[in-house]
From TrEMBL:
Residues 24-278 form the EAL domain. It comes from Rhodopirellula europaea 6C. It comes from the Bacteria. This is Response regulator receiver modulated diguanylate cyclase/phosphodiesterase with PAS/PAC sensor(S).
């Protein structure tokens, strides 16, 4: 170790980075046991349909209830699970859990409830992903039309040709496909129009900054115009204020989601939101 770090021409690492790496390693090995120890849970955030103010469905969001660190954010542990391969097992668990919950609601409310599941790059491109989805649908008896997969924009463009083929397979089963965090990646328009998609989910950062300048608001307008020409529906995520909601309504956004309506909540609380009229 250098006695004085400022003597180094550049920092190789500092104590913060060291602590972060230790935590990462520690979490990585503990994550292996999280499933058997029953530490993973799903919360559900409602998606509101703009035309009538009803609950259009829920997005399942993963949490890790760590015995010492408390609730760990998926932004922390999903990347770890992706790098050590656990994402495959965790992803299957999420899918099954979410489909079971959707079936439970369907039985209780007597109508189909749409459920959105986030899938990560490594999971989607793993061999047997389509088969795993098919098996889960068969095991839980959920209609494929009730299941939506959210895939990030950056993934779609990594290997567009094989992604197009994969999405076609999922579409053939009857699933709905949405692009998550749209606007933050670098989509090639020529690929985008060949992708079999249903939903475009505008990244939260655009909603957050929509009143900063007229330019920012027009970004959302452009995304809506693009979606229209691609015949896709648009979800705006991260809606926190009435002003944002009203502006998105004026702009013709189809669905909204965010803390203004509800935080992600436990299934028991989500049940109470199913028949709620939001607008
Ligand atoms: P995402 O799919 O883009 O999910 C939206 C995130 O924004 C969620 O964070 C949600 O709690 C948060 N959010 C929703 N409304 C608002 C709002 O009005 N304001 C603000 N500030 N935030 C809002 P969360 O639950 O921490 O998840 C973060 C990311 O982790 C997700 O981003 C998704 O990419 C990933 N993730 C979550 N669950 C899973 C999962 O089961 N599998 C995989 N592969 N990834 C997951
Ligand atoms: Mg999502
Ligand atoms: Mg998102
Ligand atoms: Mg995200």
């Amino acid at each position: 170790f250098a006695k004085n770090q400022s003597e180094l021409p550049y920092a190789i690492f500092n104590n913060d980075m060291l602590a972060e790496n230790m935590l990462r390693l520690e979490l990585g090995s503990q994550l292996r046991h999280s499933l058997e120890r029953d530490e993973l849970t799903l919360l559900y955030q409602p998606m509101v349909q703009m035309c009538d103010g009803t609950t259009a469905g829920f997005e399942a969001l993963l949490r890790w209830e760590h015995p010492e660190h408390g609730t760990v954010s998926p932004n922390t542990f999903i990347p770890i699970a992706e790098s050590n391969g656990l994402i495959i097992e965790i992803g299957k668990w999420v899918l099954r859990k979410a489909c079971q919950q959707a079936m439970r609601w369907q039985a209780e409310f007597g109508r189909p409830i749409m459920i959105s599941v986030n899938v990560s790059v490594r999971q989607l491109s793993s061999t047997g992903f389509v088969e795993a989805v098919t098996e889960t649908l068969e095991a839980t008896k959920l209609q494929p039309e009730c299941l939506k997969l959210e895939v990030t924009e950056s993934f779609l463009m990594q290997d567009p040709e094989s992604t197009i083929e994969l999405l076609h397979q999922l579409r053939r089963i009857g699933l709905t496909i949405g692009i998550d965090d749209f606007g933050t990646g670098y989509s090639s328009l020529s690929y985008l129009h060949r992708m079999p998609l249903d939903i475009l989910k505008v990244d939260r950062s655009f909603v957050e900054s929509m009143f900063d300048s007229e330019k920012n608001a027009s970004l959302i307008r452009s995304i809506l115009a693009l979606a229209k020409s691609l015949e896709l529906n648009v979800v705006a995520e991260g809606v926190e204020t009435l002003a944002q909601l009203q502006r998105l309504q004026d702009l013709g956004c189809h669905f909204v989601q965010g803390f203004y309506f509800s935080q992600p909540v436990k299934p028991e609380c989500a049940s109470e939101l199913i028949d709620h009229r939001w607008l």
